């Protein structure tokens, strides 16, 4: 989940900027869960690593604190040419859906 307090402190409570940041995240990453599923199902480890690594950067900029640890574990496995477990991928996707819901609630 996104640590809103930390994010607000980082951006000095500039709610308009945070709203823009959240909207940009939604616009750019809404289809990422489906992409992760497709790459995982196709055993495309290189593409999956790239997607997860890029996603980790985006989530870090939002002060997200739970999905990132799952992503990092999967990145380590992929660096060692191992496919993460389906449970790990499902945890990431579930976490991403929760982040999107949290953002949508903030923007409402």
TrEMBL record:
Q: What top-level branch of life does the organism fall under?
A: Bacteria
Task: Please tell me whether the keyword Phosphoprotein is annotated for this protein.
Answer: yes
* Residue numbers bearing the Phosphohistidine modification: 53
- One Pfam match: Hpt
Q: Which residues form the HPt domain?
A: 14-108
Keywords of the record, alphabetical order, are: Phosphoprotein, Two-component regulatory system
Record has Thylakoid as a keyword: no
- Organism equals Aliivibrio finisterrensis
What is this protein identified as? Hpt domain-containing protein
Q: Which PROSITE patterns match?
A: HPT
Please name the Gene3D superfamilies in this protein's record: HPT domain (1.20.120.160)
Which BP terms from GO are recorded? phosphorelay signal transduction system
